[in-house]
Design a protein that fits this description.
The radius of gyration is 20 Å and the shape is extended. It is built from four helices and two strands.
Length: 107
C-alpha cells in the first residue's frame, strides 16, 4: 500500500479500494428481493386488515406476531419505507391530536 506523508496510508488509494469492495456487497440478489417482497406483503396485509394502524403498530406486528425480528425496520424507518416502496398501495393521514401518521389502504 502506498504511504503518504508521515508514514500513514494514502487515503485516496484506501478510500477507492474500500469503495470498490463496498460496491460489490450492495447487490440485488434473489434472496434480498424475496425478503423485500415478503416485508412489503406483510405490511400491506396488516394495513389492509387493520386500518388506522400507526408505524409502531406495524413494527410490533412484524416483530411479535410474524416473528420477523431481523427485518430492520424501526418506527422511524417505516415512515420512509412505506412512501418509498408502497406508495401506490398504502396511504396515510396525520392524526390531529398526536401528529402521527395513520396508515390505511389506498383507494
Amino acid at each position: 500500500m502506498s504511504r503518504g506523508p508521515h508514514g500513514h496510508p494514502n487515503r485516496a488509494l484506501w478510500s477507492a479500494a474500500t469503495y470498490h469492495n463496498m460496491s460489490n456487497m450492495r447487490g440485488k440478489g434473489s434472496q434480498k428481493k424475496a425478503r423485500l417482497e415478503r416485508l412489503k406483503n406483510e405490511i400491506v396485509d396488516y394495513v389492509s386488515n387493520t386500518p388506522g394502524a400507526s408505524a409502531a403498530d406495524i413494527v410490533a406486528f412484524l416483530s411479535n406476531e410474524r416473528k420477523m425480528r431481523n427485518h430492520g425496520l424501526t418506527t422511524r424507518k417505516v415512515g420512509l419505507f412505506i412512501p418509498l416502496h408502497l406508495a401506490d398501495l398504502i396511504s396515510f393521514r396525520l392524526d390531529a391530536s398526536t401528529g402521527k401518521r395513520i396508515y390505511h389502504a389506498a383507494a
